[in-house]
Structures are given as C-alpha cells and as structure tokens.
Amino acid sequence: MDGTHEGCRYTLHRNDFAAGPLARLWHVKFATTGFRTLEPIMSEVFTIESLDLEARGVARSDGKVVFVEGALPGEQVSAHIIRRKSSFDIARLDQVLKASSQRVEPLCPNFGICGGCSMQHLDAAAQVAIKQRVLEDALAHIGKLAPDCVLPPLHGPAWGYRHRARLSVRAVRKKGAVMVGFRERRGSYVTDMKECLVLPPHVSALLVPLRGLIGAMSIPDRLPQIEVSVTDQTTALLLRHLEPLAADDIVKLRLFGEEHNVSWWLQSKGPETIHPLLAEDAAKLAYALPEFGLRMGYRPGDFTQVNDAVNRSLVSRALRLLDVQAGDRVADLFCGLGNFTLPLATRVREVVGIEGSGTLTARAQASAAQHGLAGRTRFETLNLFAVDVQWLRDLGRFDRIMIDPPREGAEAVARALAALSPSERPRKIVYVSCSPGTLARDAGILVHEGGYRLRGAGVVNMFPHTGHVESIAVFDGG
Ligand SMILES: C[S@@+](CC[C@H](N)C(=O)[O-])C[C@H]1O[C@@H](n2cnc3c(N)ncnc32)[C@H](O)[C@@H]1O
Ligand code: SF4
Q1: pLDDT at 25
Q2: Of 215, 232, 433, 443, which has fewest CB within 10 angstroms of its CB?
C-alpha cells in the first residue's frame, strides 16, 4: 500500500469530526499530573498513513507528525497524546474506529506490555511487506538506488524461534516477588510474564520455575540476567551474578539443571569469566548446519544468529547468491564463529575469515580444524572499521566477498572495495545486514563510487513480530 497516497485520500483534519459522534472524545480516564491534580485525557481522531519500525502508526495533525502506538496504516483511531516534542508527538491508542483488514488478534497475553514484540497485531505477511518497504525506502533515499530485483523474503517459524535470548531478572525483596523475562515496552521494569511465545516452548515453560529458583537463592537481587542458548541437543542458561554465590546456591542450580535438563553457566564479571557450572558441559553447546555437515561449537555470550531455522536458509542463500565455484578464493568479513566461513570452505579452494573478536576467530579456527577444513581456512582478528584499500590489496585478490557487519555497517570495507580497479574487484559481494540504513549507505558507496551493480536485495524474516529488519543484498563486480 502506498502510504502517502492512502494517507492523502483518507486524511481528515481532526476538526472535521468536531460536530459528529467522533468529536474529540473526553475519556473517563484521568491522568495524575501532580499530587492531587487530575487532568482529563483528551482523545483525538487520527488517520494512520504508515507504520514506523517500532510498529507505531504514523499520522499527521495540523502538519505535525504523530506516532500512534497500536494503530495500523489505513485505520481511523482515537488516541491521546502522551508526549509532545517540537517536531513530533507520541500518542497512545484508545479505540480503533475503523480497523485495518491486516489487524489480527495478538496471540501473546503479554503483548502491548512486553517490549519483546511490537507487531503481533499485524498479519504476518503484512509485517514482512512493511519490512521490505523499509528496505526499499532506505536504498532509495539513503543509497539513491534500487535493486535490479527484489529477492523473495526468507521465512522460518513465526513462533518459538528465539534460540538465543537475554532475559532480565528483577527481585522485589519487599514484595517477595521475582520477575524473569523481557523488559516492558515502556520503562525499565521486567514484564510480569509467565509464558513467551517466541521462545522455544520448553524455555517458555522455565520462566515460572526460574522465578522460584532465583527467589530461593541467597542473593536474588544481585542476579540481573539469564542468557538462554538453545540448540537441537542442549539448553544452556548463563547466569550473571554480581556477588559470589553461596555453596547452597550452587546445589540449587545443579538440582534445577537436573530436573529441567539445562546446563548452567556462570558469569561474575566480563565475558572472560564465563564458565560452565559443571566441567562436563563445557563442550556441549554447538549449533548445526546440516546442509554442510557442520556443527559449530560456541559458548554462551558468543554471537550466534537468534533464529536457527532462518540462519540455515540464510547461509544457503548467501552461498547461492555468491555463486561460489570450487576454485574460488573468498573473504568472509565480520565472520564471527565462522557461520559463513566454514560452509564456504566446504565448497571453495580458500576462505579468509576476518573478525574483531579474537575469542570468536579462535573458536572458528577450532571448528575448522575439527571438520578437517583447516587447510582451506585462515582467520584474522582485525578492526574492520579502520581498514583501507591498501589493506585489501595486501590480502590478495578475492573472487567473492561475504560481509555481515553489526548495526554500524561496513563503511570502511565498502570504501576499500570501491577503490579497487575493475580488474581487482571480486565478481560477487553478498552483504547481510541488520540495519537497512547502513546497508543503504554502504550500497551507495559500492554502486556510485565503485561501479558495482546491486543485483538483488530482500528481507530475511529473522525476528518475526519485532521491528528488526534483517536483509541480504547481492552485488556484481563485473
Ligand atoms: C552480525 S555479526 C555476524 C557474525 C557472523 N557472520 C555470523 O553469521 O554469526 C557481526 C560480527 O561483527 C563483529 N564485529 C563487530 N565490530 C567489529 C569490528 N569493528 N571489526 C571486526 N569485526 C567486528 C562482531 O564480533 C560479530 O561477530
Ligand atoms: S517477547 Fe514473548 S512475552 Fe513478549 S510479547 Fe513477544 S511473545 Fe509475548
């Protein structure tokens, strides 16, 4: 749907309703603005033109942009302003007056309170369409370009997909209550959640037992976080503790681990302090890439892709788009644990994996050796935000380049690639991104300054029901 056009047709000035039944609705709700002062909340009617990435409906009122929480494009809603800024206002939905055909009933009882999901009230296909539109808009407005073709979205399961999650823990001593879950959408409280539909069901079922466990420990208010890592064979829980645990706490953790079939890991300070509670759990954690006959060993706290099923499709698609050939020499930049490096090494002559974290490159190297791929892989630890064309030339010519940076993108890498002469360029570049804005910026550099061609771009539905946009793009070097 073209939001601007739809918006123009539907936009009604709120005063248009002044005399009708939809006249500014004075709600029975009252807001406390001082000790005893009660102010009526004034609802206004808005027509929603589009959706932002926090899944807020975007409307206009007297020329000012208003973000309406809980409203969808094409809807007429009544809402009240909760925050006024100089260039925009934020409003909260009171009533849907004319619903979008894409509105669905959110499945999770915590939706609206929990900050984990923002789009459950929107049909799943429409969520993906919106993300695709965000990607295309970013490429057009920031990168000043359009892909030759829009790649079909990559899908996986819409529920139970979060194989890695950081759960917050909050113990309220006075109330004797413990919350374990995601933070609330507004503010910093932990959601009072007893289930979560995007966590694998067996992890969701641990939320209530975990409350009991934390509450029974000696320092419940010094245990701020539990990081969950799930593989097809094991579930690891990494407990952050700000003070030493008592001997009795260790016993409780062991018993909980046995009863619920989870392995505990502990972290007292920085990432270097992460260790398994039981030594025999040290080597258990590994995710599978069955299409390539690989099991990638890792530890809680390492970067792994959140959605295991989508990651498998993503790796396969990246290799297809790179069109790898047996004799190729390939670079995998921001390689992490070797999620793309090792699959590539099963298909090509040589892969050079480069990454900023020495812990991850060491882990990737060990995985390569374990799979008999050491002879085809080489890893380097390097800050890829500070590289130039000379660095790239010194690495020797690559036939294909894989790039998978963090949110900040890969500007220095893009500039180095753009400065290569046509004969030095890789034939294909595949860029996986978690930020459409930085992808669009880097794509602009590759295309406008480097002469590459953006053959295709599409979304990867890695995080259903959230505003995160993961995407993949493929460039031809000539
Ligand atoms: C989105 S992850 C991708 C990891 C890997 N390709 C995968 O699929 O699991 C981005 C990676 O970039 C690394 N990274 C972040 N900043 C970096 C930098 N300045 N230089 C090099 N690597 C960096 C992170 O450690 C992380 O492993
Ligand atoms: S993250 Fe979990 S608990 Fe929160 S809204 Fe999503 S499904 Fe519900």
Answers
A1: 31
A2: 232
Nearest CA to ligand 1 atom 8: 339
Q: At what angle do helices 247-260 and 207-216 cross, to 10 degrees?
A: 160
Q: How confident is the model at residue 40 (pLDDT cuts 50, 70, 90)?
A: low
Pairing of strands 453-460, 377-381: unpaired
> Quick one: average pLDDT of 112-131?
94
User: Is the per-residue pLDDT at 234 higher than 60?
Assistant: yes
Please give the CATH topology (third level) of the domain spanning 3-103: OB fold (Dihydrolipoamide Acetyltransferase, E2P) (2.40.50)
Q: Which ipTM score applies to this complex?
A: 0.99
Question: What mean pLDDT comes out for the span 282-302?
Answer: 94
Tell which wins on pLDDT, 26 or 424: 424
Two structure tokens written together for 378: 């080489």
Query: Domain 129-157+306-476 belongs to what topology?
Result: Rossmann fold (3.40.50)
385 annotated as ligand-binding: no
User: Which ligand is nearest the CA of 433, by number?
Assistant: 1
Residue with tokens 């206009």: 60
If you take atom 5 of ligand 2, which residue's CA is the nearest one? 111
In this prediction, what percent of the chain has a pLDDT beyond 90?
A: 86
Whether residue 196 is annotated as binding a ligand: the answer is yes
Please check whether the two domains, 129-157+306-476 and 164-230+235-281, share a CATH topology.
no
Confirm or reject: Cβ of 356 under 6 Å from ligand 1: yes
How far apart, in whole angstroms, are the C-alpha atoms of residue 233 and residue 241?
A: 26
Task: Fold for 164-230+235-281, please state it.
Answer: OB fold (Dihydrolipoamide Acetyltransferase, E2P) (2.40.50)
Count of alpha carbons within 13 Å of 225, Cβ hemisphere only? 13
Provide residues with CB under 6 Å of ligand 2.
Answer: 108, 110-111, 114, 116-117, 182, 193, 196-198
